[in-house]
Amino acid sequence: MSAEETSRFVRLQVDLVLEVRDEGEVSKAALRRLAEDPELPAAERAQAEGAVTEDTAEALAYLVDPFGLVSEVPGVELQQASWSSERVDYDPDSPDWHLGEDDGEDDADDE
Predict the structure, then answer these.
(1) Is 48 part of any domain?
(2) Stretch among 27-36, 50-59, 102-111 having the lowest mean pLDDT
(3) Which of 42, 51, 85, 94 makes an SS bond possible with 57, Cβ 3.0 to 4.6 Å?
(4) Residue 99, exposed/middle/buried by CB under 10 A (0-12, 13-18, 19+)?
């Protein structure tokens, strides 16, 4: 493929598994981030504060900043980002944990 035929856009997928050792500290950090956001309307701030206080996974979603991950990379501009977080049972020794593989692909290979 010539340079004219290739896309300038790249999808970068990142899977992270984090161990939360202090849920209170994570929630406090998310609340600080929310308090420092001058563009967040009061009604949305109240809803977000409730969410990050009740759910550590939600607090982490507020703290992870995809723009921050790539803002220092020369020659790129973030066009779109989405991310989510959820609590999971994690066993690094389990054969069910393979980072970077889509759900269901291994199941089809095993049958």
Answers:
(1) yes
(2) 102-111
(3) 85
(4) exposed
Residue 28: alpha-carbon gap to chain centroid: 18
Whether 90 is in a domain gets the answer: no
Q: Quick one: pLDDT band at residue 94, thresholds 50, 70, 90?
A: confident
Asked whether residue 76 is domain-assigned, the answer is no
Domain that holds residue 51: 22-66
pLDDT at position 68 = 86
Number of domains in the chain: 1
Q: How confident is the model at residue 66 (pLDDT cuts 50, 70, 90)?
A: confident
Question: Is 26 contained in some domain?
Answer: yes
Tokens for 22? Answer: 């202090």
Taking each helix axis from N to C terminus, what angle separates 23-35 and 56-63, rounded to the nearest 10 degrees? 50
Query: Whole-angstrom Cα distance, residue 96 to residue 69?
Result: 28
Q: Mention every residue, 6+ apart, whose C-beta is less than 8 A from residue 86.
A: 57
